Amino acid sequence: MRLADALVADGHAVKKLIFNVGDAVYWGTRPAVHYRGRQADYPDFLRTLVADGGFSDIVMHGDSRFIHSAAVKVGVENNLRLHVFEEGYFRPNWLTLERGGINGYSRLPKDPVWYKSLAPHVPIYDNGLQVRNPTWLLALHELAYHLPNIGNYLLYPGYRTHRPHVSAVELAGWAMRFARLPLLEKRDNQTINTLIESGQPFYFLPLQLDSDSQIRDHSDYDNISQVIDEVVHSFAGHAPKDSLLVIKNHPHDIGMVAFFSLIADLSRALDIEGRVIFLESGNLPLLLSHARGVITVNSTVGTSALFHRRPLMVLGRAIYDLPGLTFQGRLWDFWTHAEPPDAALFSCFRNVAIHATQINGGLYSSHGIRLGVNNCLNSLYADKSPLDVLLEQ
């Protein structure tokens, strides 16, 4: 909304495609096109809209849902510029803004030499201006957006959510989990402190969400339960016998899968009871700074692990999965053969990736939104994106 207002203030015309009641509530009375039809008819509807509308650009939040992938295809067919926003690769103070695609669809090269050669020609980026995204604010936005979607069946009958569960189920799950979170945090922080004081080596697996496009589109897994199964089996068979595996739940999980029971059953079946610790919450930087190694599918926790110089195993497709940064072998070898990332290479990668794809700002707080809008306009208006400029050098 705020970005649209800024674009209009600069003399541009903006129309938003509205797909559900939540979209309509957030968008208000600004110019919009409402799509209430079937998913199968959407691509042709979009082609007609683009042909008749005189559009030059498409701006999206994410690029993997059906509505986005169809927009990418239609945009390419019509030579439109495609701008994709998402939460940042280097959170919490950054947003991602790329042309054409993000995450697994990003055009960031996988060549370490490219980053090393360009690093001297881009600024050295610190952490940017601070952006706070407290859990309660995210929960408020989720409630404000998803609660009105109860009316989708009547007002937008063709809408189908990309998430595994409808809004009402998710809201109930969030409410139950967030109500318990203060007690869980106290318990889990005590567990982490005891673990670190013991000095016992441990590996760390941060969980992602089943609904995340990083799992659905940029990995070979159907869900996080499959990831847990593979990692725990590998840990049981190949990790040093004196080591532990710490598994931490995603902070926005709605509790529809009983991960604690799943992990307990696996541990019993593999005769490693007591060697796998499951946390619902906890101090992430503290865990990263003491872990012997980190395993992830493609979470942004991976960039934090690299920052903390932890050996890192990537199981999916991630922009930071480069020789010299991540372990390039198989999971069963990672437990005993992984080495810390090349700190100099990570510095080059981080600065070039921030310069090419990141915007200082946030999606939820007023300060973060204002910061993000102000910082993205030059990139949106430019004939070539920062990444395009670097790729041509």
Distance between the termini: 35 Å
Spatial sequence of strands, sheet with the most strands: 8-7-6-9-10
Q: The biggest beta sheet, please?
A: 5 strands, parallel
The chain-level structural class is: alpha/beta
Q: What percent strand?
A: 5-15%
Structure overview:
By secondary structure, this protein is of the alpha/beta class. The protein has two domains: 2-157 and 358-392, no CATH class; 183-347, Rossmann fold. It is built from 17 helices and eleven strands. The protein has helices at 2-9, 21-27, 42-53, 66-77, 112-118, 135-146, 152-155, 167-198, 213-216, 224-238, 259-269, 284-290, 301-307, 331-337, 343-357, 366-381, 386-392; strands at residues 16-18, 32-34, 57-61, 81-87, 94-99, 202-206, 244-248, 276-279, 293-296, 312-314, 358-360. The strands form three sheets. It has a five-stranded parallel beta sheet, with helices on both faces. It has a four-stranded mixed beta sheet with strand order 3-4-5-11. Strands 1-2 form a two-stranded parallel sheet. Strand 1 (16-18), helix 2 and strand 2 form a beta-alpha-beta unit. Helix 10 (224-238) packs across helix 14 (331-337). The two termini are 35 Å apart. The model has no long low-confidence stretch (mean pLDDT 92).
Give a concise summary:
It contains 17 helices and eleven strands. Helices cover 47% and strands 12% of the residues.
